[in-house]
Amino acid sequence: MCETAGGTGEAAASMPRPARGEAVDPVALEPVDEVEIVTLVDNVYDALLGDDERTRRAGSGAGVVAAPQFEGARTTAGMIAEHGFSALVTVRRAGRSATLLFDTGRSPDAMVTNADRLGIDLGDVQGVVLSHGHFDHAGGLTGLMGLRGVRSLPMVLHPLVWTRRRIAVPGRDVEELPTLSRRALDGEGFQVIERREPSLLLDGSVLITGEVDRTTEFERGMPPPHQAWTGGEWAHDPLVLDDQALVVDVRGRGLVVLTGCGHSGAVNIVRHAQRLTGVDRLHALVGGLHLGGPAFEPVIPPTVAALTGLAPGLVVPGHCTGWRAQHALAAALPDAWVQGSSGTAYRLTAA
């Protein structure tokens, strides 16, 4: 995925473009009194990170498991970290709260194991949102299936999540990625809702962006080795059109934007959310920004510059952001940047 050479057709495919479908903006997104985002799965788990007024860490004592080599035959296991992402989003408005699951991680058991170690009952979740179809965001659906209260659970996703994809790096074996099965999800009783356009959930308190406008000149998407099956051939898939984000408006603070991988581009996503809602202020950006690796490192400086100009109060880059981008964002936004970690809760309240 580090190979960036491509022809004119591939360059044209990754040029800025508007999202398909009739634009409805501003969307009537209801401001909330509080939003809490709990990172159930991320690439990193650091048990030594401390809490602050908006961040609560799982710590090293989470998850007591059997371990016969210790006195008492028990130990604390902490959180599982893996190359994937999952977050639990709870919004509170007018004395009522509701919870959504945003992505499910990579492996069948990491998300449900971490939720259990945090004392979270996933049976209380009122809906599932998939940011896109890549397997490191949908793998944990296996663990979710069969849990109490999961059957008939609404699942909001873009219709292209079923796309077959592969990584074809020249000189290496082709790697076909696991593809989501609509038949399997229907068979488990999920209420699958396919939407290209924006969706309002939880009584209008949560916005799912739908397909994101690509308006910046520098966020060109995936390099040529990332390919999709068109029905007749494998072709470069730079845009990952099924990529979408979750947005909440915290009263008096501004937008909280949660991304999975951010394949649409972090700046594109924020601008799209601003356009849809009519809310200019970005309060927080949390999730994967896909700025890791040689193919994406040239995108780091303009991305950091644009995000710095937006002056968010909290930035928690996770998952596929990459260490170079983490360092750049931490340097540019020292008061806003926070290290992500599996098992961390971020609570943002109204002004």
UniProtKB/TrEMBL annotation:
Region Disordered: start-end pairs: 1-21
Record-listed E.C. numbers: 2.5.1.105
Transmembrane domains' residue ranges: none
Pfam families: Lactamase_B (PF00753)
Presence of the UniProt keyword Zinc-finger in the record: no
Keyword annotations from UniProtKB, A to Z: Transferase
InterPro entries in UniProt: DHPS-like_MBL-fold (IPR041712), Metallo-B-lactamas (IPR001279), Metallo-beta-lactamase_dom (IPR052926), RibonucZ/Hydroxyglut_hydro (IPR036866)
Keyword Hydrolase: no
Bias-annotated ranges (Low complexity): 1-13
Source organism superkingdom: Bacteria
GO terms for MF: 7,8-dihydropterin-6-yl-methyl-4-(beta-D-ribofuranosyl)aminobenzene 5'-phosphate synthase
Metallo-beta-lactamase domain residues: 95-167
Gene3D superfamilies given in the database record: Ribonuclease Z/Hydroxyacylglutathione hydrolase-like
Protein name as it appears in the record: 7, 8-dihydropterin-6-yl-methyl-4-(Beta-D-ribofuranosyl)aminobenzene 5'-phosphate synthase
